[in-house]
Every structure is written in structure tokens, then in C-alpha cells.
Amino acid sequence: MKRAIAVGLGLLWSSLAIAAPPALPAPKVLDDFDDISAWKLVLSDQVSGSLRPVSGAGGGRALCLDYDFHEVSGYVGIRRPLNIEYPANYRFGFQLRGDSPSNDLQFKLIDASGDNVWWVNRPGYAFPKAWTPVEYRRRQIDKAWGPSPEKDMARSASMEFTIYSKVGGRGTVCFDKLTLQGLPAQDDSALRPSVIADTATALQDRMIDGKSDTFWISGGVKQQTISLDLHKSREIGGAVIDWLPSLEANRYT
Question: pTM score > 0.85 for this model?
């Protein structure tokens, strides 16, 4: 999605204001990692690994995976059975920390046959040293492989976190508080927002008309607020603001 907003001289900043979405159901805890025996260590040949309990992000228990690639390519991970039926839209959340080289982090969801896998693959992942929340939304989970023609996942039977060798070495990756939260159904219809500006003019829609030769100028006020009314709650990836090049150097004067 791309939207262009050009500003005039004397403008300190512009803000995009979007109405707050309705309240969401509370996340469901799938695993708090208090019992690490629910997870099985999986690894490739010549790679070693072990699991151990540690203090978690919220004061309870968590699971740490210690691994060593021993200068070979391969993978190491944790897997557990976990039957999930998915709502129309959702997001997973978990807490993560690690003292690890930048190897690939893979989040996998596997069906009952074991042949069809959906995943989120993060190559060369920068593991945070402190506990950090991570979220994966439905739109970020792709079909990885498998004979099933279904691209979207309706249910899964097991879950896996995998560290795949990119730079190798040894390290530790820890997991805590795995959750699943239902979200409003994803809306893929075209965006047709209305533009509301403090200094309203008949030309303000030029900032979102998608044309490179049209633009909107604030009128020289020192602070300008711009609101985009989407007319309904929906998930968006963000907004791109294109400053008019000739005004770029002067927009803070």
C-alpha cells in the first residue's frame, strides 16, 4: 500500500490518525512452558542439542534450547503435539530470547498426516538478548511444503520451533508463553479512505489519488494533523509518506 503526502514550508510534522479497532478476545495460552517434557528435541545428524528449564518472562518457567552445529549444516528444534482449529483470522504470540549466532528461526505448523507444513521462516534472525514478544499473523504464515492442494491452514496437529544453520556455531534460544488470539476477519478489499485535514481544502484528496504528479500542501501552518478515515476496522501494513523533494530540506524551518 502506498499513499503520498506532500507538506508545505513551515510544517513541523503530520500525523496519520486511524480510529481504534474494537476490543479483541483475550489471547489463549497454548503453552506456558512450565512443563518442558511436552516438547521433544528434534535434530539432524551430527548436530547436538539439549533442553532445560529456566525462569520465564513473567516469573514462571520457560524452556531453553542449547545447541551446537559442530561445523556442519543442519537443524535443531523443539516439537510438540498441539491440535488447533483456526478461526478466520488470528495471530500467534510468544516470548523469545537468545544468546545465539544469526541462524534461521523457523516456526512450523504441521497437519495430522505429518506431510503438510506451514511456516514462518526468518533467515539470519537477530535473536534478542532479553525477553522480547514476537507475533506472527495469519497472513505471515505460508505453505512450506506438502501434497495437500490447500494453501490456507484450517487445522494443525503439531508445532515446531526450528533453528536452521545459516552461520552455524553454538548458542541458546529460549521460549515462553505461547498464545493464539482470534482477530477480525481479514478484509482484502481496496482501500478507499476519506481524508480529513485541519486546514480543509478541496484538494486534500490529491494526497491519496495514487498519481505522482499531484500533491497536497498544508497551507503553511506550523502543525498539521491529517486523518485517514477507512470507514471500517481493518488490518493494514502501514503507510508510505512521500515528501515533495523541493520542500524536503525546509520542512522543519
Answer: no
Backbone phi and psi for residue 158, each to the nearest 5 degrees, phi listed first:
-155, 165
**Could you give the domains of the chain?**
1-21+188-253 (no CATH), 28-182 (2.60.120.430)
Q: How far apart are CA 113 and CA 108, in angstroms?
A: 14
Rounded average pLDDT per 10-residue block, the chain, 253 residues: 35 45 82 96 98 94 98 97 95 98 98 97 98 96 96 95 98 98 79 71 71 71 71 68 60 44
Q: What is the CA radius of gyration of the chain?
A: 23
Strand order in the sheet with 104-110: 40-43, 75-85, 155-164, 104-110, 117-122, 142-145
Euclidean distance between CA atoms 200 and 203, whole angstroms: 8
